[in-house]
Write a structure and sequence with these properties.
The complex is a heterodimer of chains A (about 150) and B (about 425). With about 150 residues, chain A is of the alpha+beta class. Chain A contains 5 helices and 4 strands. Helix content of chain A is about 40%, strand content about 20%. A 4-stranded mixed beta sheet of chain A has the order 3-2-1-4, with helices on one face. In chain A, strand 1 and strand 2 form a beta hairpin. The termini of chain A are far apart. Chain B is of the alpha/beta class and about 425 residues long. In chain B, helix 7 links the parallel strand 7 and strand 8. In chain B, helix 3 crosses helix 10 and helix 12 packs across helix 14. Chain B is globular, with a radius of gyration of 22 Å. Chain B starts with 11 loop residues before the first helix and ends with a helix. The N terminus of chain B is likely disordered. Classes of the chains: A alpha+beta (about 150), B alpha/beta (about 425). The interface between A and B is medium-sized, with 24 and 19 residues.
């Protein structure tokens, strides 16, 4: 598959395609303590992130919405990774993830485990917002709990 | 129009040779440019006109007594006459240069509409408008107490004319509709709309941004009150557009922006405004852009609008016939009369992912809501993939698009 697509394989890795098609934690959470809506008006990506925060930890996190494969997979893997993590760990992970996809640091992402599949996004500046929208939305839910847009 | 009408004289290879950008590569592949509804590419005739202006004529217009200013003024006003003839206006007084369609639409809302609308009045727009023909009306209705009404569209992407008839009444003061939809490609029955609107005493604004590159327009024949368009969608430069208005209406309208060139005399006690068309052209205009628009008109006329339309129509039919046979494709906009636009979604991939994979093959399409979010909501899609056609496109471009979609299917469709 994708013969002759060169570095597109780096963007659309099998793991991303899988999470894009079958997102995990893709449901709402009536008992959520925090939630926020995220919207990318440029392409129509839209996610809502729900969290249940207890004792400074993310007890549960999930999402709903409509987005491209990159956005959906990013949200799916974000929720998988952050469940049971402390808020500090979540913040650190977000910062590392952001550095990786914006290409600020050449070796950023080496310690991000599964999330390193998103490293290819840095070669597609127009798609960075797709990958970061769920994270910005999560951050918004934890702080002001408002609506975040990336454009 | 039938494909048989295509004159054999239309030589697309020669047309392509006029557009320097078409010979470049994108991501290692020859550029396949299918985004002309966003902005068309520019022929060397237009690029040369800009270069010639800055190399030989550059100076301010309507100001100096020196030779350069006179030559620049002649070129600038010469372009106004070209626009007048191109759109069939009665007088150059009716041709106002703006920065684009959005600017032209705002000029109407903030002068004509703002000074005439009262509470209880109604403005009628359609569900397929570009944001630039929605938001200014929302703002002016908010400011004046008038009510904004929206004509619905059908599943095929045509105006619901029965609903139009019901919504139109003597309370309707302004009807503002798009001639050719940028998101759907629909050509609206504008003659019928204008006739009906005039019967109830409403004035009509036509957003012609997507119409002028594809079909001949004649202001007097249409009997339209206001008509707006941009140069950059018809092979001209960005940053310049036109507002056509019937002289009697323009004369009654207050100025939009104040400044130089739009005045006859200024004292601190009183200012006397300039006459048409300068009353609406405050400040140094986009001189090179206007001259470039004149060159674009010359270019389009040389190609022949009918020949261009026939060529594009043949391509649209060629593309439509083939794309609907591909798995998972849903066309958005299947009106009987369309121009230049193929808008679609794939049930297995998001438009944004499709755009990236096509770009990787050198194919430029627009993916998104096309500044027409209500249209996306109407068809319950977050966005569409839009391939739009121009005089320089070929069947090979369409074939590249179809192969590109096939490759998207290979990545996402399984």
């Amino acid at each position: 598959m994708m013969d002759g697509f060169g570095d597109l394989k780096d963007l659309y890795q099998q793991v991303i395609l899988d999470h894009g098609r079958n997102p995990r934690n893709f449901h709402d959470l009536p008992e959520a303590s925090n939630r926020a809506d995220g919207y990318n008006p440029l392409c129509g990506d839209q996610v809502t992130v729900f969290c249940l925060i207890e004792d400074g930890h993310i007890k549960d996190v999930c999402f709903t919405g409509k987005g491209c494969a990159i956005c959906t997979a990013s949200a799916s893997m974000m929720t998988q990774l952050l469940k049971k993590k402390s808020l500090e760990e979540a913040q650190t992970t977000f910062e590392r993830f952001h550095s990786m996809v914006t290409g600020d640091e050449a070796d950023a992402g080496s310690d991000l485990g599964k999330l390193s599949v998103f490293a290819g996004v840095r070669n597609y500046p127009m798609r960075v917002k797709c990958a970061t929208l769920p994270w910005h939305t999560l951050q918004s839910s934890l702080t002001e709990g408002g609506v975040v847009t990336t454009e | 129009m039938s494909t048989a009408a295509k004159p054999s004289s239309f030589n697309v290879a020669a047309v392509r040779a006029d557009f320097p950008i078409l010979s470049r590569e994108v991501n290692g592949k020859p550029l396949v440019y299918l985004d002309s509804a966003a902005t068309s590419q520019k022929p060397k005739q237009v690029i040369d006109a800009l270069c010639h202006y800055y190399s030989h004529l550059n100076s301010n217009v309507h100001r100096g007594v020196h030779q350069l200013s006179q030559e620049a003024t002649n070129a600038y006003e010469g372009a106004r006459e070209k626009v007048r003839a191109f759109i069939g206006a009665k007088s150059t007084n009716e041709v106002i240069f703006t920065s684009g369609t959005t600017d032209s639409n705002n000029l109407i809302t903030w002068t004509y509409a703002h000074s005439t609308l009262k509470p209880g009045d109604e403005v009628l727009i359609s569900h397929m408008e570009h944001h630039s023909n929605i938001v200014p009306w929302q703002m002016v209705c908010e400011a004046t107490g008038a009510t904004l009404k929206v004509v619905p569209i059908t599943d095929e992407g045509e105006l619901d004319m029965a609903a139009f008839d019901e919504l139109l009444s003597t309370a309707t003061k302004i009807v503002a509709v798009v001639y050719v939809s940028n998101a759907l490609g629909t050509i609206n029955p504008v003659r019928q709309i204008i006739e009906k609107a005039h019967k109830v005493g409403a004035v009509v604004l036509l957003d012609g941004a997507q119409a002028v590159p594809h079909l001949a327009v004649d202001m007097q024949e249409l009997d339209v009150d206001f008509f707006t368009f941009s140069a950059h969608k018809m092979y001209g430069p960005t940053g310049v557009g036109v507002l056509y208005g019937k002289q009697a209406l323009l004369e009654k309208m207050p100025p939009f922006k104040g400044g130089g060139d739009m005045i006859r005399m200024v004292t601190f006690e009183k200012t006397i405004f300039n006459g048409l068309p300068y009353k609406f052209e405050a400040g140094t205009p986009n001189i090179s852009g206007v001259i470039g628009l004149g060159a674009a008109i010359d270019y389009l006329l040389e190609l022949g609008l009918d020949a261009v339309a026939a060529h594009e129509h043949e391509l649209l039919e060629y593309a439509t016939e083939r794309i609907v046979k591909m798995p998972g494709v849903r066309l958005i906009g299947t009106a009987a009369k369309k121009a230049g636009v193929l808008s679609f979604v794939l049930d297995y991939a998001h438009p944004h992912d499709v755009g990236t994979i096509l770009d990787h093959q050198g194919i430029a399409v627009r993916t998104g809501h096309h500044c027409a979010q209500p249209v996306m909501d109407r068809y319950d899609v977050p966005a569409t993939i839009r391939a739009s056609l121009a005089a320089y496109n070929t069947k090979e471009d369409v074939d590249a698009l179809l192969a590109g979609i096939q490759s998207v299917y290979e990545v996402f469709g399984q």
